[in-house]
Amino acid sequence: MVIDLNTGQGESLAYADNLKTTLDWYAWANDETILFGVGTTRHQRGVKYSVTRLQVMTLGKDDEPRNAIRLRNIQGSQLPQLADGVISLLPDEPDHILINLALDVANHPSVYKLDLNSGRVHRVLRAKSDIYTWVADRQGRIRIGLGRSDTEMFVRLYDEGGDNYRILWEYELFNAPEIDVLGFDLNPNILYLRAEHEGRYAVFRADVSQAEPEMTLFYSHPDYDIDGGLVYSPKTGKAVGIRHGIDGNGIDYWDSDYQMLQASLDETLPDHHNRILAETRGLRRYILFSSSESDPGHYYLGDRTTNAIDYIGSRYPQVNPTNHSGKEAVRYQARDGLELDAMLTRPMVQAEDGAVPAVILPHGGPAGSDKLSFDYWSALLANQGYVVLQPNFRGSSGRGFAFSNAAIAGWGAEMQDDLQDAAHYLVEQGLADPERICIVGASYGGYAALMAAVKHGDTFRCAVSFAGVSDLEKLVSDARHFSNEKVVRKQLGTDRKRNRANSPVRHAKQIETPILLIHGSDDDIVPVAHSRDMHKALQRQKKPVRYLELEYGDHHLWHEQHRLETMQAIVDFLDEHLKN
């Protein structure tokens, strides 16, 4: 929607049902034109996969979004799977953008200049062997090609014609820390990168005009990875800060002007994490998001001329301290002595003896991590009377290469034991009743919940898997349909005996824990067959299992009715096994 700030009236620009179509992202191409990334799921020979397209709307001209690229009118080209990869908004050409399009060779994009008015494209750089995406400098010139050959990753620097290149850095995926290109500064020779420093990922700068660019440490944190992207000034085009997930604010500035503004906001809205989301080109006005560990957050319109902020709206207006206690960061020790982070959400009503029913809620990925920011899973469960712990088990991101690399061919091993140790921590702290603990998870977290029923049924009274993996052999086999097959094979390993041993579907006979399975029929990340097969295996063994399949459902619960149905099913299941 676009809202008139003078009248407060809103106008809907684009709508998606979040079943067959999703609105994935948006960006202003210029002062009148908005770009939309639109996604859908396609089926081919039993394989489901994502397809994206770019839509454009010019305010005052269009009644509804139109396909930005007239793909079918491009002679001799194939329709690409992904067609919303914007590389540059071309600051000196407001009616044109640069975009990745694999029109010539599948999975190898060329760079095209797109006319936003006509929808015509003109190729400016032909696809190169093994390059999967391109990076432009702040002037809109293609400078970097990011590539992969099997599991070898490399960063190429191209000349302005795109013909000659030299490799700047290369590394073997999962064998060495990653080197991620963050982007250029306004100076087209200064490149920002993320690489490892003293066991944590940090920000480096390099002068690519040098024959052998040296990475110079620019910004780091002693305990956690810097895991976000650069923040640019819309006025100067310079990099002024870096996003990260270390705390709720999520941005650290190195520009003094932005540092002063941030300090003023933090003084005006104390005890909150205050993050600037967007600014006008002249930096006069900005959108502010302010949240805390117990506050899901509010949006404000800020004005640097008047030094005022005006309330716009709230993210979850019905969530407040009367029904949500907020998260706190804790640490617990695994059985081998490793100290692990976790996010703790206490229930609104505490039992007299302090011990209440508990839920261990592992995140997906597994290369993800839980933060102090609001999420509706933990908030809902705590509201319903459960103490919730979200462990950042080994294999999670945020603590460097070695920590996250524990997930490589490690599913079902130490990272699984970390979840049982999280349950023991709650009991030791007097926070949970040892007889009333369940485990709930989605995606990898769903796998971990099922595997907990296999390995640690004595600890967990029930288990809930949303969109969870049940068969590692199948996951490896299905990768043959995609370009990242060798990455997946290396990530999960090809030892069939080990993968079978760590696949919950192979152990239905020994599971005694009641199981709730939920899966979307159009999940293109973890195919619905994983839950269907798990359901059949448990039924054959006459084990306690329920299965809810969401028609046209995806991997992320984008559709509101699916979200409500899923959350209600989980609460009912937990109440049955932990409160009765």
UniProtKB/TrEMBL annotation:
<feature type="domain" description="Peptidase S9 prolyl oligopeptidase catalytic">
    <location>
        <begin position="373"/>
        <end position="579"/>
    </location>
</feature>
<dbReference type="InterPro" id="IPR029058">
    <property type="entry name" value="AB_hydrolase_fold"/>
</dbReference>
<keyword id="KW-0378">Hydrolase</keyword>
<dbReference type="InterPro" id="IPR001375">
    <property type="entry name" value="Peptidase_S9_cat"/>
</dbReference>
<dbReference type="Pfam" id="PF00326">
    <property type="entry name" value="Peptidase_S9"/>
</dbReference>
<protein>
    <submittedName>
        <fullName>S9 family peptidase</fullName>
    </submittedName>
</protein>
